[in-house]
Amino acid sequence: AARPRFRARVFGFWVEPPRPDSHAHPLTPSGRSVDWETMGNWSADSGFLPGREAAGPLALIGATIPAVILIWYANFHLDGSLVALVQELAADPVGWFLTKWPSCTDPEAWSWILGFMVFELALMRLVPGKEFKATLTPAGNIPIYTANGMQCFLITLVAFALGTQYGVFEPARVYDKFGEIISSLNVFSIFFCFGLMFKGYYAPSTTDSGTNNNWVLDYFWGVEHPVV
């Protein structure tokens, strides 16, 4: 008897990995073929709003970056008053962004960000754990992870408590510098996502990669399954 085939629902289609002995595209239950090279190409879809595949991501990115700063400012400087925030913005919107936007080049903020990143990446790679095989991907790959998330979480809590107890760092400074940390992360994320996009284009980690033929959507959605 033939072995059962794995299927998964991707982008609204039922798909399965290509058969080793066939170059045919897999079929949905309705019989429509799914082309692996164009699957997920939303830029070709029709819709009510032309250009929405670019306008939507740009609107989300453009709105969330200032929104998180405004929320922080209202809580940190205005006791959480949105009314006071609106009044300040209405009085001098351009001046507000020029004078009250927290710095994205603060050395202390970057020391917290980079220190935490290095520490957690080291834990991901060094802390042992059970091998975990994820679900078969549409391209036929099986992502393999080290299931050490809980161990890393507990180590992080212990390291935080010990670091505070013995004066390695002062946690209150995270609160004091939270605006600068958020501002720095906003800038970092923009360039980091560009880096991931170009890596997915030219040096993908696996065959689970591709493009939507729209760089805005590629930037927002991602073009590969990255491996750390």
UniProtKB/TrEMBL annotation:
<keyword id="KW-0812">Transmembrane</keyword>
<keyword id="KW-0472">Membrane</keyword>
<keyword id="KW-0753">Steroid metabolism</keyword>
<keyword id="KW-0152">Cholesterol biosynthesis</keyword>
<keyword id="KW-0756">Sterol biosynthesis</keyword>
<keyword id="KW-0153">Cholesterol metabolism</keyword>
<feature type="transmembrane region" description="Helical">
    <location>
        <begin position="109"/>
        <end position="127"/>
    </location>
</feature>
<comment type="similarity">
    <text>Belongs to the ERG4/ERG24 family.</text>
</comment>
<keyword id="KW-0560">Oxidoreductase</keyword>
<protein>
    <recommendedName>
        <fullName>7-dehydrocholesterol reductase</fullName>
        <ecNumber>1.3.1.21</ecNumber>
    </recommendedName>
</protein>
<keyword id="KW-0752">Steroid biosynthesis</keyword>
<dbReference type="Pfam" id="PF01222">
    <property type="entry name" value="ERG4_ERG24"/>
</dbReference>
<keyword id="KW-1207">Sterol metabolism</keyword>
<keyword id="KW-0444">Lipid biosynthesis</keyword>
<keyword id="KW-0521">NADP</keyword>
<dbReference type="GO" id="GO:0006695">
    <property type="term" value="P:cholesterol biosynthetic process"/>
</dbReference>
<dbReference type="InterPro" id="IPR001171">
    <property type="entry name" value="ERG24_DHCR-like"/>
</dbReference>
<keyword id="KW-0443">Lipid metabolism</keyword>
<feature type="transmembrane region" description="Helical">
    <location>
        <begin position="148"/>
        <end position="169"/>
    </location>
</feature>
<keyword id="KW-1133">Transmembrane helix</keyword>
<feature type="transmembrane region" description="Helical">
    <location>
        <begin position="181"/>
        <end position="198"/>
    </location>
</feature>
<dbReference type="GO" id="GO:0047598">
    <property type="term" value="F:7-dehydrocholesterol reductase activity"/>
</dbReference>
<dbReference type="GO" id="GO:0005789">
    <property type="term" value="C:endoplasmic reticulum membrane"/>
</dbReference>
<feature type="transmembrane region" description="Helical">
    <location>
        <begin position="54"/>
        <end position="74"/>
    </location>
</feature>
<dbReference type="GO" id="GO:0016132">
    <property type="term" value="P:brassinosteroid biosynthetic process"/>
</dbReference>
